[in-house]
Amino acid sequence: MSAATPLNPPDARLIDADVARAFAEDLGSGDATADLLPADAEASAALTCREDAVIAGIPWFDACFRKLDPGVAIDWRVRDGERVAAGSVICHLRGRARALVSAERSALNFLQLLSGTATITAAYVAAVAGTSVRVLDTRKTVPGLRLAQKYAVRCGGGHNHRIGLFDAILVKENHIAAAGGIEPAIAAARRQHPSLLLEIEVETLDELRCAIAAGVDRIMLDNFTPAMMGEAVAIAAGRVPLEISGNVDIETIAGYARTGVDFISVGALTKHVRAIDLSLRLRLDS
Question: What percent of the chain has pLDDT over 70?
């Protein structure tokens, strides 16, 4: 993703709340080890990324250090959404030594997790290059860090599906069964929440035809084979955007994208995340 693309991180108050929770579980009543350092000591630190990665999470990283030392100097060499090579020094810091060592773990936890999300997202986006497919995330996120991970998905070039259960309607098989069928489920959704995006999950081509006739905003093809996906694209004929979900991984996504669907949602972007290897080395000022 171009560094010039506006990524719009979550509100600063949400980031501060994330940091407060992280400090509550890590610092507790205070950093007993940091007490070994002189109270007035100043230090410098360099942050190295030890592997190729797409960076995400700078606002959380900065907020950790600034919460303990409002005067800390942070000099970034990259921006969120930029790719860095293994071994790159991506940030320098200078501030109170106790604050630097106390904030280090929480700051790195945010940055390595969110950069992991951005990096895997970028790999999926690259796999569908040359098609018009948009790669979407899901609600399969780390509890309490949904907006952070969805921001990281954008840093990797992906797009966000609904944030939660409140901002869009996704009618699935259990909803259809409880409502008495596709048509009554869609009618109830339109009646109760007319302003929300309405998507329905279908498992057969007959259900697809029914959903198109009922008038929805998007249709999710659940566990369709590639051949069925191609048929679904022909049936929809551009009238309703189609989304693929289920059995999507980095090996299969390119083939699915070539069927002509509009969206592919991938739970692995935020669920199966491997943290990026980062190292923060500190040096006491003389």
Answer: 98
